[in-house]
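Dear U.,

For the methods section draft, I wanted the exact inputs and outputs in one place so we can describe them consistently. I've listed the two proteins in the order they'll appear in the manuscript figures. Please don't edit the token lines directly; just add comments below if something needs changing.

First protein:
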Amino acid sequence: MGADCVYSIIGKKPFDLVIKNVKIVNVFTESIVEGDVAVTGGVIAYIGPIDFPYTANEEIDGAGRYAVPGFIDAHMHIESSMMAPARFAELVLACGTTTVAADPHEIANVCGAAGVRAMAEASANMPLHVLMMAPSTIPSAPGLERSGWSLGEKEMEELLDIPGVAGMGELMDFNAVAGGDERILGVVEAARRRGVILDGHVPALTGARLQAFRATGVDADHTDMSLPRAKEKLAAGFSIQIQHSFLSEDLIAYVDQFPLQDRIMLITDDVPFVELVEHGHLNANVRRAIALGLRPLRAIRYATINAAARLRLYDRGAVSPGYRADILLMKDLEKIEPDMVFSDGRLVAENGRCLVRMEKYKFPEEFYHSVHVLPLAAEDFALKAELPAGAAEALIHVLGCNEITTRTKNETRWIPVRNGQLDTAGLVKVGVIYRHGYGPEKAPGKEVSLGLLAGFPAFRGALATTYAHDSHNLTVYGTDEEDMARAANRLLEIGGGLCAVQDGEVLAEVPLPVAGVLTEGEADELQEQFGAFFRAVERLGLRHANPMMFLTLMTLAVSPEIKCTDIGLVDTLEKKFVPLVVEAR
């Protein structure tokens, strides 16, 4: 391609495309120059005023718009959109994302290495360039939860042999790493021997334990980015990847002036479908960072060339000669809304609409039969606490929730005991059922692990989901045991997804038939289903700023402070089980 670019510049062959009259954003100098962009063979051959004779197969008038590198998301999960890769690509290309580093640990928790292979195959040969990462922590909290697969050193080596896999995904069992657990350190060493990218997940380590984590070679984190934590991680040599939930004025002011700019990135991590449709993808994070005070050219740098360098993709991330022609044209450097999106020099999206139809990938048949649970009954959701005779009240552990965040407080509170049973009025039950089956035949079972949520006194009915980070066990929230059983059984009928039930009636459902975490449906169909589901959530009285994230994170045993897994209640900071009932009197 380099020779062809030279030939185009000296007039021996035409440029494939010339974009005339644009303001070219230079991410190396954080400057803007007016001129043209010439492309040959999907590569940028020349930028600036073309003041020499040339020919071109196609010319486009940029009409004075800014030419910006295509956005590169250095850490994300396609499954968080609940869309198969082809449909996901169509949405995010229209938002200006042209490259992603995708960690498919959601589907890997269900389908193992076959899930990673399928996602890599489904993501190949698209105008959205997908760099696949090998999930590193399955289960995310071994011994505290069960998933559909278990990953060790041997499995990591096998994942890194899959075509399209280029690095190790986020290492989430941070306490095991800092504590010297041989299994998890073996996983890191398997990846380190290959010399690949090593991603981290370090929300709670500091001091010597954080440095022990960094000493393994894992050198990026996207979790707690409060200003003191971000400073410590940068000082320890981490690349920090800032997702939307951690954007704040004080952090933005700090990274806007930080001297070593190449270690700072804007990423998405998880973008649920509704947020993707309503607000956008990585462009939404760039927009938000600018609104908080980050200089626009610096914000663009954090979502382009810095991410490319982190991912060792030295052929993209800049509108500059020799770089891939992944280019966005936009009128405004603060609104960050691309009018035209080019991938490898091809126009793939315009005015918020993808122009390319991706070919549908056929997942393995067993992915459509992945929920191995027996039908459930109301009594399966009844609390069966052993209480002393004559007890009037009991001290219990609850997941203390609020309407804003998904972080849960490990709280205890006294509640009444009536007729020998816990009176849970004002609390919401959460039941988690191991969905992955037992033995080589995946024989179904129906063990229900129960916990209680505080913070939603108006809730009435039941909500069920098979999309529950990271193990994706069948999870049911409710105040009525009949409704809880009805919601769970409906998901067994449709192969997984989300369901809302009240007074025995299914109010709404979102089918996710691929491994219980993905749909192959169209975006408009999914939007209609989610609209009905969230109206049902509101009717049931679950008041939360982000109900989707809330419903899917209450089982995540690596997220502070207390969660309910398929085995029991877990103090996620201490990595230990805690009883539902502490004492009774």
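Second protein (the one for the lower panel):
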Amino acid sequence: MSNLKIKKIQNLLKEKNVNTLIINKTDEFLNEYISSDSERLRWATDFSGSAGRAIIRQNSASLYVDGRYTFQAKEQVDTSQISLEHLNDFSKKLSEYFIKNECVALDPRLHSVEETLKYVDLMSKNETRLYFTEDNLIDQLWDNKPNRNYGFVFDHPKNFAGTESSKKLEHVIETLEKNNLDAYFLSSLDSIAWLLNLRGSDILNTPLAFAYLLISQKEKPVLYSKVDMVQPILKERLSKHINIEPIENIKQVFNHLKPQSKIGFDYKNSSYFFYDLATKKKCLPSHLENPCLFPKATKNAVELEGARNAHVRDGASVTKFLYWLKNHPNIENETEVSAADKLFSFRNLNDLFHSISFDTISAIGKNAALPHYRYDKNNPIPLKENTIYLFDSGGQYYDGTTDITRTVILGEATKKQKEMFTRVLKGHISLSTHTFPKQTKGTDIDYLARASLQEIGCDYDHGTGHGIGSFLSVHEAPQRISKKNMFPSVDLLPGMILSNEPGFYKEGEYGIRIENILIVKEENENLLNFENISWAPIDKDLIEPSLLNSNDVEWLNSYHQTVFDKLSIFLTAEEKLWLQNVTSPL
């Protein structure tokens, strides 16, 4: 696991008289899921997780990751070259790297306006030189760097989207008028896709297209995209109310605007490069939260019904896979890889299936203790009897995005495994059945999912729930359920879709997670509750009934009855008989 690239980076820093380089895990759109040509953090550190930052100095290097990836980073990273830190400590330690008369370098395309302005402030206070690279320093060293590939950009019609893009644009333009802005620059790929009812294939497993959008009050919006990859039917529809320009011309995006034009940016989610570009064109940048953020998160009736339907089809595939797992005549002949492939084969037969929604986590034994474990196709790990197996997976369907986790025992579980699984289940049930007043934030109810574990001094170091898009990102902002010190939080609103996924991880032994998807619903004018839309049996072989109270048992039995009612029509006679047994009342 020796990392020779860190020394190369450090030598380059010395050549350029740079003391510190900051590397983000993102691309120029500040997207969470990125294409292979943007995997600079992974190239430099060998860490493959979806979130992280690195600080590389001439004689040291540090990688900052969150609790989801603590174990994984230890497995992947050469700790003789790179020290591991918690991502929560990044901001606290940042000032230590801004030293008088030293130079800190970063690529302004890969850092938000908000983040970079903090660096500028630190630079000023500490008399540090801040160097914005024109050519990314990692790219200068990255041999055989993948090329940027563009896929087709296609229409997402109203029968899936629920609302015409022209109506959505009208709402955004009204927002500009209210905020006295001449234009708004949008670079969030999922927001552009939602706003214009388009989808793409530029990001693996997430139907996004590389694009930028400039929305003006008095002129047609301009979409910067790979023009020759835009589907003709989509181009025809869009051309009625927007202009399409080649994405290669993006540096000219503000050229036609008059000096002193007020341009809105979401400082948290827009690249500093464009803020700086607008300033150089003598325009006046101003912060305005992405006006697509909440309309996209609060799904309309068509999107919600699509999500419900997609989860039923997806649940049938998961249930077929569970039957295959639990009834396999010799499970030890299978591997993490072959199991993931089998699950894909079931999903791939579903109506409206487009792709998986993220790389499937297929993890046996100690690998299940890594919350975002990735199996190695070149080194397939066999499944094993009397061992916990965890799979976290989902699908991209034209009518919705799915995400579900099940933990099963292949054989006999230990008493302790049953206890920990049941405590995770109790937390899952407690959150799922909660009724709460309006203006409640996800951070206000996160404790419910952890309470049973915390009774015995245990917990999990990741959030409990993330937002989910509508045939979009499987991780969608701004809605989430987490501890107050983990992530910023917003009020939960009717129509938001979130995951419910408490877990427990015994390092080096096993991991447990149970995940279903919830819709926030209005119970009455004052109260909200959750509607569960994920359907697949929960492994009763891992449950210790004595730990469940009457409400827990009632929920589980009701849930399992609904699982059977919704899914049995998709199953063979043998699968249906098995499902009837595993969903029978506790």
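Candidate sentences for the figure legend, describing the second protein: The first helix runs from residue 5 to 15. The chain has a mean pLDDT of 96.

Thanks,
Y.
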